[in-house]
Design a protein that fits this description.
Keywords: DNA-binding, Transcription, Transcription regulation. With 301 residues, the protein is α/β, with parallel strands linked by helices. It has 9 helices and 14 strands. The protein folds into 3 domains: 85 residues, Winged helix-like DNA-binding domain superfamily/Winged helix DNA-binding domain (Arc Repressor Mutant, subunit A, Orthogonal Bundle); 91 residues, Periplasmic binding protein-like II (D-Maltodextrin-Binding Protein, domain 2, 3-Layer(aba) Sandwich), CATH 3.40.190.10; 108 residues, D-Maltodextrin-Binding Protein, domain 2 (3-Layer(aba) Sandwich). The strands form 2 sheets. Strands 3, 4, 5, 6, 7, 8, 9, 10, 11, 12, 13 and 14 form a 12-stranded mixed β-sheet that branches.
């Protein structure tokens, strides 16, 4: 027998409210209709979902499994309806966003003025963090994340891809000399991110233009979990680092840092806009993602 989604929604309401009478009142339909729809759902599924007595209603084992699996469907439908209602009014309300600490300070925060001018009804709450936050548990609408995203419960939309390279302060290079090639990195002081750790130790993937990436061993003197934490150490002449070029452009232009082995480049770092799979993106989330993509493409000031 063909199943009717409305029958499932009626069943969910019965379970949530604990009775056919309460469900009928909430749905504004006759109690007999509620009872009939649940009965037709059981016939379509081929299993009893509810135990009915004169005093109480309870779930069967099959009913408990079905209820648990269908709750997310109902929640998604409610979110979709809410998103459509918001769309009619335009993006508005609080938008909770988490960003990597380094990007939050140097890149994301300066762009907010343009976004706020375009969407004055949106209020932003920004959480800068060195570690990925739980989007569902922290009730976060959108996360900006760099690099690979192994968590399959997330939906990622790539905003940009940044080239990486080696950098050092002139003072360090005057004192320690320039490496002749990546093979010399083990003889230099290096400043690395924790994620550079491999089974063989710490490595930096590097390649010449047109070539393939190859892992080169490094022996870090300083480790950190965010590039911003390494920048001051590099500026102070503590050693070499592998970093996103754009994040250090201003320091290079000012002469505070120098590109080392410029013919060698590291792996590009993707910047992704990430949402939880179970959350239907609201108009304000969609608006921010579109704005960020346009900004990265140079289509907005």
């Amino acid at each position: 027998m063909k199943r009717d989604l409305n029958d499932t929604l009626v069943f969910l309401q019965v379970v949530r409210l604990g009775s056919f009478t309460a469900a009928a009142h909430a749905l504004q339909i006759p109690k007999t209709t509620v009872s009939r729809r649940v009965r037709e759902l059981e016939q379509a599924i081929g299993a009893q979902l509810l135990r009915r007595t004169t005093r109480q209603l309870s779930l069967t084992e099959a009913g408990a499994v079905y209820y648990e699996r269908c709750q997310s469907v109902a929640d998604t439908l409610e979110q979709a309806e809410h998103a459509v209602q918001q769309l009619r009014e335009g993006p508005r309300g609080w938008l909770r966003v988490t960003v990597p600490f380094s990007f939050g300070v140097s890149w994301f925060a300066p762009m907010l003025a343009g976004f706020r001018q375009r969407y004055p009804q949106v209020r932003l709450e920004i959480l800068a963090s060195h570690v990925p936050l739980d989007l569902v548990g922290e009730k976060i609408d959108l996360a900006l994340r760099l690099g690979a995203l192994p968590d399959s419960s997330l939906i990622a939309r790539r905003l940009a891809s940044f080239p990486t390279g080696l950098f050092a302060a002139p003072a360090y290079l005057e004192r320690e000399g320039h490496p002749a090639g990546p093979e010399d990195l083990m003889q230099h002081r290096t400043l690395a991110l924790h994620q550079a750790r491999r089974d063989v130790g710490y490595v930096w993937p590097l390649r010449r233009a047109g070539g393939r990436l190859k892992d080169y061993r490094v022996d870090p003197q300083i480790l950190a979990n965010d590039p911003a934490l390494l920048r001051d150490a590099v500026l102070a002449g503590e050693g070499l680092t592998l970093a996103i070029e754009q994040s250090l452009d201003e320091d290079v232009r000012a002469g505070r840092l120098v590109r080392v082995l410029p013919e060698w480049i590291g792996p590009p770092q993707d910047l992704n806009a990430v949402t939880a799979r179970e959350h239907v993106p609201s108009p304000k989330v969609t608006a921010l993602i579109a704005y960020l993509k346009a900004h990265m493409a140079g289509d907005v000031a």
